[in-house]
Specification:
By secondary structure, the chain is α+β, with helices and mostly antiparallel strands. It has 10 helices and 20 strands. A hairpin with a 4-residue loop joins β3 and β4 (65-70). The longest helix has 22 residues, at 149-170. The site of one zinc ion (ZN) has 4 residues, from loops.
C-alpha cells in the first residue's frame, strides 16, 4: 500500500463547488454523530471528489478526504484530486479501510446501503471490528437531489448534445432503415459531438413495438407510414440527459395523431404545474387527469417522471403516491405516454428544472406535430 497527500497542512484545496458539497456532507456526518462516511457508490464518489476511477471508495473525514483505489487509478486520483489523500491498495479494499479506521481511531462510520453488497458489507464489518458501520442512506442523496450551478450547466450540455445529434439523424431517416441502425447512428452522432456515450441503451421502437415502454431496438424496418418512438440521452461531463420524441415517416397514422395530441396536452398541463412546494403526486395526477378526459389514463402505465443527473434515474420521482414537495434546483423528466398493445405507443419526454419562480424546460426540441413528420 502506498499513500500520497499526507502533508495535510500544505495540501491544496478542492475547487469551491466540491468544497461546498463536502462541507454539506460533513455537517450531516456531525449531526448523525458519525466519525466519517464511506462512499462506495461511483456517482456519489464523483459528486463529492471529482474522481471517477471504477475501483475504489472515498472516506470522508471531518478534516480529510481519503481516496482508496488500486494501482490502475493511482495517477488519475492524484492528478484529479491533489487536495485529497490517496491510499493505493495492493490487497483487499477491506484491509485498506481497516488501516484508515485504526489510524484515525474511527468508531462509527456511515455507509450507503444501496452501494454496498451484503457480502462486501460483511467483509468490511469484520475487518474494521470493533468500529461499526452505520447505514446512512440520507447523507449524499439529499445533496444530489438539488442541482448546483455546475451541475445545471453540465445537464444543459448533455441535453444540447443529445438534441443536436437527434436533429442530424432525423434528416437521414428513410424507409428501409432498421431500429438498430437508427439507434447506432444516434449514438455515433452524440459521441462525435462530445458525449462519452449514451445515457442508457437507446430505445428506437417502430410501429406496434412502441407499445413496450422499454423496447430494445432490433431488426424491424422503418416503412412509409411508420410511427417511431425514440428515447435517448447523452452523457457529457458525467451528466445524463433523457428525452423522447416521436417521428412519423411520410404521414401520421390517424390513431397516433390522436394519441400524440393527448400526450402532448398531458405533458404541457403537468409542466405548467411544476413549482417549488407542489406535491410530486399532484404533478403526476395532472397528467393522468388530462389523459382521463380522452379516456386514455389506463394506457399510461408508468410514473410521470424521475430525477436525473449523474445517474439516469435518481430521486425525486414524480409518481402517483409520492407526497414529497418539489424544491428549486431539482431537475426532473416529464414523460407521459400512452401504450396500446398491437397498435403502438406515444411518449414525449423533456427535462425540466424547478426554479424559484416555477420551472424552466431545459430541452428545446420542437413538439409540433408537423416537425415530427420526416
Ligand atoms: Zn427516457
Ligand atoms: Zn426518463
Amino acid at each position: 500500500m502506498s499513500e500520497t497527500g499526507s502533508t495535510e497542512a500544505r495540501a491544496p484545496q478542492p475547487p469551491s463547488y466540491l468544497a461546498r458539497r463536502l462541507s454539506a456532507c460533513r455537517s450531516s456526518i456531525r449531526k448523525k454523530a458519525l466519525d466519517g462516511h464511506l462512499v462506495t457508490g461511483r456517482a456519489d464518489q464523483y459528486y463529492l471528489t471529482g474522481f471517477d476511477g471504477e475501483d475504489g471508495a472515498a472516506l470522508i473525514l471531518p478534516r480529510r478526504v481519503w481516496l482508496l483505489t488500486d494501482g490502475r487509478f493511482a495517477e488519475e486520483a492524484e492528478r484529479r484530486c491533489p487536495w485529497a489523500s490517496t491510499l493505493v491498495r495492493e490487497g483487499a479494499l477491506s484491509e485498506a479501510l481497516a488501516r484508515l479506521v485504526r489510524r484515525h481511531r474511527l468508531a462509527r462510520i456511515g455507509f450507503e446501503p444501496a452501494a454496498l453488497t451484503v457480502g462486501t458489507h460483511a467483509t468490511f464489518r469484520k475487518a474494521i471490528h470493533p468500529a461499526r458501520l452505520v447505514a446512512s442512506p440520507r447523507i449524499v442523496e439529499p445533496l444530489r437531489v438539488l442541482k448546483d450551478a455546475q451541475e445545471i450547466a453540465q445537464l444543459r450540455r448533455a441535453i444540447e448534445v443529445a438534441e443536436s445529434a437527434f436533429r442530424a439523424v432525423t434528416r437521414r431517416v428513410r424507409p428501409g432503415m432498421t431500429e438498430r441502425e437508427l439507434a447506432a447512428d444516434l449514438q455515433h452522432e452524440m459521441i462525435r459531438r462530445g458525449a462519452t456515450g449514451a445515457s442508457f441503451p437507446i430505445i428506437v421502437a417502430v410501429g406496434s413495438h412502441s407499445s413496450l415502454p422499454h423496447a430494445v431496438p432490433g431488426d424491424r424496418k422503418i416503412r412509409s407510414g411508420s410511427a417511431v418512438l425514440i428515447d435517448w440521452g447523452a452523457v457529457v461531463g458525467h451528466y445524463r440527459s433523457d428525452l423522447t420524441r416521436m417521428l412519423f415517416v411520410h404521414r401520421i397514422p390517424p390513431r397516433f395523431e390522436r394519441f400524440y395530441n393527448c400526450v402532448r396536452e398531458a405533458q404541457e398541463t403537468a409542466i405548467r404545474m411544476i413549482a417549488p412546494g407542489v406535491r410530486m403526486c399532484d404533478v403526476d395526477s395532472a397528467a393522468r387527469d388530462s389523459l382521463r378526459q380522452a379516456g386514455l389514463d389506463d394506457r399510461f402505465t408508468h410514473s410521470l417522471g424521475h430525477g436525473l443527473g449523474l445517474d439516469i434515474h435518481e430521486p425525486p420521482r414524480l409518481g402517483p403516491r409520492v407526497t414529497d414537495r418539489l424544491e428549486a434546483g431539482m431537475v426532473v423528466t416529464v414523460e407521459p405516454g400512452v401504450y396500446w398493445p398491437g397498435v403502438g405507443g406515444v411518449r414525449i419526454e423533456d427535462d425540466v428544472l424547478v426554479t424559484e419562480a416555477g420551472c424552466k424546460v431545459l430541452s428545446g426540441l420542437s413538439k409540433d406535430l408537423d416537425t415530427m413528420v420526416v
